[in-house]
Amino acid sequence: MTQLVDHGVVDKRASEPVRPTSAATLARAQQAQAAGRRAGALAVVKAYVSLTKPRIIELLLITTVPVMFLADHGLPNLWLVLVVLVGGSLAAGAANALNCYIDRDIDQVMKRTSRRPLATHTVSPRSALIFGLTLAVVSTVLMATFTNLLATLLTAGAIAYYDLVYTMWLKRTTPQNTVWGGACGAAPVLIGWAAVTGGLSWPAWVLFAVVFLWQPPHFYALAIKFKDDYARAGIPMLPVVASMRRVGLETVVYSWLTVGASVALWPLGMTPLYGVVAIVTGAMLLVEAHRLYGRARREEPLKPMRLFHWSVTYLTLLFVAIAVDALLQ
Hints:
Layout: H1 2-15, H2 23-51, H3 54-72, H4 78-102, H5 104-107, H6 125-146, H7 149-173, H8 177-180, H9 182-197, H10 202-225, H11 227-233, H12 238-241, H13 244-264, H14 272-297, H15 304-328
Helix pairs in contact: 2-4, 3-4, 3-9, 3-15, 4-6, 4-7, 4-9, 6-7, 7-9, 9-10, 10-13, 10-15, 13-14, 14-15
């Protein structure tokens, strides 16, 4: 009986005339397909941009340009600034993309990084590796063509240090990874100075020290926030392997060293404007660091992101003051 009913339905449908698709319907279908292709292409582009970690690049550039102003004692050649900005962005993007390739195993485990392109399989590991290496080559060639040998070597060295020394070794083996990994984060200071002068003088090394010493308080705060994530991935960040009191104490120590290094730049040709900014912003950084340490000693909730966000503001204001100071001299 079911078969008879089915045949009847089939016969009825088969006997109906085929209605031609209208031009408007066909156009809408084609537009939908084109929109789908554009959305897919845009998603891929966004995925590759995400590999470069743009927010980290922004922070690196904040330190590079003011240093170039200081090295030139005023407004440097704008073409050189553009080259260093582009070359530095590509170099940082290369280092970050290769970092994503190397860390793809732990990125899938950590909630904070589980949406990265390799963790979500939006980009294949091979494609990410090729992308990172290509950016590294392009950035190095660009710096070699338009700057000088020292700036080029520092650029290539920063990429290699971040991926081979920090990502592959320090990050996975020692709680001091944040401290010694800071060398590559502070390298843009030296690169910017070398691009302008062809060498490195004391102010460049003092500013390198500022950024190098600033990174432990900055990243310790982030590591406290995502302590469970790092523990799940087996990464021995200091908040994972040490008490919060120890982390708070080191945060205070490195904050004081950061402020001390920033004030040490004042006698090296800076005006009182820079000195006031260094002291005021430094005092606020120290207040947040001591607050975190105080909460750790009292075993209270630490609220680490207050220090994290203020540390970014501190570094930004300090280097803006450097640029303004250089223009006023």
